[in-house]
Amino acid sequence: MSPNNNNIIEVKDLDVFYGAIQALRKVSLSIKRGEIVSLIGANGAGKSTLLNSIFKIPTIVGGSIHYNGDDITALKTHQISRLGISLVPEGRHIFPRMTVLENLLLGCTPLGFQHKDEDLKRIFALFAVLKERKDQAAGTLSGGEQQMLAVGRALMSRPKLLLLDEPSLGLAPLIIRDIFKTLVSIAKEDTTIFLVEQNARMALKISTRGYLLVNGKIEIEDSAKNLINNPEVVEGYMGK
């Protein structure tokens, strides 16, 4: 079956192993341009593995990944980043001894520095605190500020598809709300977002659709509204 031209990313029958352990089993999903789509599930379900597989970090054993209709399954990570895909990894992975500005400029690597001034202006408009602290060592930032820096660095490569892995992890509720509000703004600027998030309710509130991953398999695909009201999802993944 040929890829759907309305989709920015299509994953088909993906099998991924870590050594002898199968982490993903025949996973299929698609995301349309301009959507925010959430992937929810318990710890260890394979959410991060799926996100990382798109960015070609684990080894894909079977299945395919198409981006804008082109098969990118065999591409390397640096080739994928040049196509317009950026990953904000779990744990942020900023460079603590480098300044905020230096970390942001690293995000230019896939495309070069010809648009850096314009893109820095955009990042500083989204995250004003980063402009205030641009000459400060990144490791001295608060957890929320480091997450903003990680998102900002990813945006410096002008992605059309932004992959986010647990952006709310370890952050205070007010900071989480601010970051998720910014994600909505980013999506309105022609950036599609695929979001892995333990805070399922918060993630689905800003999403158009969502997938539930259980033990490496997609169990439910539905609109975000339906998932928020699905008794099985509420009981198993949202608490009270």
Chain-wise SSE layout:
Layout: E1 7-18, E2 21-32, E3 36-40, H1 47-54, E4 60-67, E5 70-71, H2 77-82, E6 85-88, H3 100-106, H4 116-126, H5 128-132, H6 143-155, E7 161-165, H7 173-188, E8 192-196, H8 200-205, E9 209-214, E10 217-223, H9 224-228, H10 231-237
Parallel strand pairs: 3-8, 3-9, 6-7, 7-8
Antiparallel strand pairs: 1-2, 1-4, 4-5, 9-10
Helix pairs in contact: 3-6
Order of SSEs = EEEHEEHEHHHHEHEHEEHH
Helix and strand content put the structural class at alpha/beta
Task: Please describe the biggest sheet, giving its number of strands, its sense, and whether it closes into a barrel.
Answer: 6 strands, mixed
End-to-end distance, in Å?
A: 42 Å
Percent range for β-strand residues: 25-35%
The tally of helices reads 10
Helix content: 25-40%
Q: What form results from the Cα inertia axes?
A: globular
- Spans of at least 5 consecutive residues whose pLDDT stays below 50 are none
**What is the average per-residue confidence, as pLDDT, rounded to a whole number?**
93
* Integer-rounded radius of gyration: 17 Å
Strand tally is 10
Q: Assembly state here?
A: single chain
In spatial order, strands of the major sheet run 6-7-8-3-9-10
